[in-house]
Amino acid sequence: MAETALKKRSPFIEFVSKATSSAGLTIIFTIIIAIVATVVAGPFTLLNAIVTGGMWALLAAGLSLVFGVMNLVNFAHGEFFMIGGLTAYYVFTPISAYLKENPSPFLTALAPFAGIIAATIVGALVGIVLEKLVFYQLRKRTKEQWVMNSFLLTVGISVIIINGVQIIWGTNYKGITSYWDAKPLEVLGVFISVDRIVVFGIAMVTMAIFWYFLQRTTTGRAIRAVSQDETGAQMVGIDLNRIQVLTLALSSALAAMAGASLLFMFPSYPTVGLKPLYIAWYVVILVGLGNVAGALVGGFIVALLQTLTGYFIGVTWDDVIPTAFVMLILLIRPSGLFGSEVKGVHEQ
Amino acid sequence: MTQNSSVKYTYEEQEPIERIKRLAKKFGISPVGLLSLVILLILPFIPPFNQEHLLRWLVGAALIAAQTIAFDFTTGYINVVNFGFAAFLGVGGYTSALLAVNFGISPWIGIFLGVIPSAVLGFLTGILTLRLRGIFAALMSWFVGLALLGLTRNLTELTRGPLGLNAPTFLETASNRPYFYIIVAMMMVTYLTLRWITNAHYGLAFRAIGQNIDAARASGINPTYYRVFNFTLQCAFAGWLGGFYAHYYGILTPALMATSHTVEVLAISYVGGRGSIWGGAFTAFPFVFLIEFLRSNLTELPGLHLILYGLLLILVMIFYPGGVAQVYDTIRDRITNRSPQNQSAAAD
User: Fold this and answer.
1) Is the ipTM of this complex over 0.90?
2) Does A23-332 carry CATH code 1.25.40?
3) Of A254, A270, A214, whose CA–CA distance to A124 is shortest?
4) What does the pLDDT look like over A179-203, one tens digit per residue?
5) Bridge partners (DSSP) listed for residue A190
6) Highest mean pLDDT among A21-30, B117-126, B331-340
7) Torsion-angle region of residue A251: left (phi > 0), alpha (psi -120 to 50) or beta?
8) Chain B residues within an 8 Å CB radius of A171
9) Tally of CA atoms within 13 A in the half-sphere of A150 that contains its CB
10) Residue A166: its chain B contacts at CB < 8 A?
11) Of B96, B203, B239, B346, which cross-links B110 as Cys (Cβ 3.0–4.6 Å)?
12) Smallest CA–CA separation between B307 and chain A, in Å?
């Protein structure tokens, strides 16, 4: 006991120093705003922000991870989201049509998961293919100005995926009204659909697994090592190529999972990914590029900001206000509110 | 100093032609370039191109060409991708159109007045992105573009939002030929101005900043001044060209300011060759024709032309980063027998 007491400062001082860091202040400030908003606008805003915030966190975590490990600024992240939605739609609708003819309460409850899991797998596959086919090719040839060049590659990929999907599946909206046909639950006097609750649960569980994977497993540690120091990681025998494939696959799988889970809110059509892309970027800039853990908090902050803008100013403005806010953050603290442990962020 | 005494080649005799040569070099005029311009100028009278719909393509191509020149001025030199480029174009266009609609100001004056807000916004964006490096600056300009797009969409009393704003056209005629000459003139003004600047010591400073900002600063270049100058100028030209867009097509919608438009300009400018200024403009003509041809002939496959954009961008980025400009340089060097190896051998 004496040993730990020597090592650690008093818990109170520890708490105060954490709370007054920029990350701590941000969290405290957000909580205050959330409470004020709940009082003024009703608990509906808070619940809405929490439910969507979880999904934004998933999207942003993938984006952040890929930046950390591959120094890749992914413009095509929203397209993974779209592919996820599309896959879930084509897996879930036939199953649910089949279940309408052969009712089975057990399978009906499970069917949505089939869609979401299928979407996650497809997302991962797309990530692997892209890494092998595009990013690896560029990395092999030149590493000069990698950040900018790879960013432009993702721009090209985004255009190709959007229009490819449009040619094959058309521009019409492919969506569902809900995954689970259950009565909305009442939480804090607000009716909230089962879908939203389950989706929030999925997001939280995934984030927890993801966090555990990064912090505790050997592969996760290797991923973090690469994001902190590529050369150093290579020296201790980490296979860079393998880590890079894995990272992109993970990231796109997370995005696809978010797309599939939010299918009832965002019906799949070719350009659906644009908005989630902005949002993921807002989150990532807010908390700092490469900061995966911060993405969770950032997701809630951005979702809260959007809900409040929608409530107080107007739904159409929920792009403009968060944009302005994020620009401000970028100006004041380019490394984000929570800072970033990623090396090479400020190198071009 | 008779004409026969040409053996005694004196400096005075040499001067006029040398002077023209030097002047031409200063503005980036080469014999091949002049020839291309002449061909371009007589093109509207050559049979297949004198039809109105092909003339329309020509005008569109020249407009894109002029945009790629302005775009490359920033991307190819200071190495900052202005991802909100289209928004600055839109600001110029909307200003000019609104002035014409509300105050009856002639489009001929309006397009110059439209430059002012674009330049001011460019100046501010330049200052905003100053502290940020490469990719952050690109993201920042993207956010600025998104914010401007959101504003245009939402300020419906002013811009009529997605309904579109009708702008008076430059001329009463239905023919596209006069417009073609206007836009080619505008393109040439853009080209000559920007080439003149980049061929002066400014170009060197821009490149130095683009390659290594710290080294540039260490050698006495003030990055603040050059970056803001570059950004302001680019946005000013974007605004000017936006004015042409408004008064040629006669209708403005927020879609003009969307990121996809920036991607279009970006793809052509990259395929044309970074840092060449002329490469994008040269590429724009065959490229736009190919794309318009695909668009009008393969109507059952919408978006195929955009896939081509993406694919070409990726292929060029990976396999031939120099683009069309490098192809030209290689051919020219082979013809004049000045291969890079010979040059370096001579230098030794």
Assistant:
1) no
2) no
3) A254
4) 777 777 777 677 778 888 888 888 8
5) A187
6) B117-126
7) alpha
8) 302
9) 26
10) 302-303
11) B96
12) 5
